From TrEMBL:
Protein name (database record): (S)-3-amino-2-methylpropionate transaminase
Family note: Belongs to the class-III pyridoxal-phosphate-dependent aminotransferase family.
Gene3D superfamilies per record: Aspartate Aminotransferase, domain 1, Type I PLP-dependent aspartate aminotransferase-like (Major domain)
Domain of life according to the entry: Bacteria
Amino acid sequence: MTSPAPVAPPVPVGGPTLRQERRLVTAIPGPRSVELHARKSAAVARGVGITLPVYVQAAGGGVVLDVDGNTLIDFGSGIAVTGVGNAAPDVVEAVTAQVAQFTHTCFTITGYEGYVEVAELLNDLTPGEHEKRTALFNSGAEAVENAVKIARHYTGRQAVVAFDHAYHGRTNLTMALTAKSMPYKSGFGPFAPEVYRSALSYPFRDGGLPGPEAARRAISQIEKQIGASNVAALVIEPIQGEGGFIVPAPGFLEALADWSRAQGVVFIVDEVQTGFARTGALFASEHEGVVPDLIVTAKGIAGGLPLSAVTGRAEIMDSAHVGGLGGTYGGNPIACAAAVATIRSYQNDGLIERARQIETVLRRGLESLQASDARIGDVRGRGAMMAIELVDPSTAEPDPALTARVSALAHAQGVILLTCGTYGNVIRFLPPLTISDDLLLDGLAVVRDALAAS
Ligand SMILES: *Cc1c(COP(=O)(O)O)cnc(C)c1O
């Protein structure tokens, strides 16, 4: 008699059917994660850091299941990427169908419908009623670079203006556009020329300077230091992401957009982090009543598959000659299939409204913490993109050490929590839009306890 073959344990599947609760069965990180992390340290370049060294088995809804069987609350969405949730069923289905048909042609050799469909959706859904064109790329940084290329070609000018606290990526041009030296730039120069920096509106740290005045300050710098006629483009995030979730004062972006239009400067809005329902509108520009000439999107666009886009005025986008834009993988068919399913989900599954509800829950929780803890200098953000800035209560000096302690304690309790900010003193909340209120409240309670213990 032969004994029956041993049955392999089921492989956990991700998506919204994962049990939606925080549940720790080992210390964080657990032994299997520790083992994998030792392999990582021996095999992966040190510069590629890991915020929370747990290794993932499956994820979905508002949780991440690690290889030790711990379920963590996801307050990061892989940096605002999995807005529709990890392994979202519609995305899985679209990707599975596409991967079985063809995986790659290079769109600049032979075309396919998915690329065109993503372009049509973006042309239709991004702000402004003008005629638009789209080009697809792989990463946010690559799309920002292409937006700058296109603006320079269209205007015949070279100077590009970025702002304080900006983050636009890690390639050479986007490092130049990015404001913060450590860890993004230090030792990696020389940087691209003809990149200038101007002052931002940062209400918590500029005495609440009104938006139009903050814009006048920036414009005056640009006119005096560069000269409007030399400027190809302004590049700005509508809410600074890595720079600290800084929401500019009302009217700041609008005044910059108006000035750009009057001066023939291309107004490029980097919505890589703020895009796709994250802020309670499909695009954050809508909150400010701003219509970008070019809008750059990535992160939330394709449910986790690598894809990015530049969308904008037809006459600007079409100014580049045939063959001037592209790349081997840009607009990969699998990523495009994922994007079509993802963008439909934002539109049809109530996720814009859900982002607003998440704002209500997070804001209420964070403001009630602030009421009894003067170290929380500011609560800010929009939609499912909220943050607290931690300071010394007597001086409002940034407190990065406290920020690091709070996030480490939250990690140990099974909450994936990210920090940001030029001064490293901002804790940001970027949950998937599919997270439940129960998980939001449980995660907030963990942050409350972490603050109390710090
Ligand atoms: C993440 C980010 C980028 C860079 O995107 P990658 O895909 O990492 O290259 C650019 N701009 C903003 C605002 C971002 O948040």
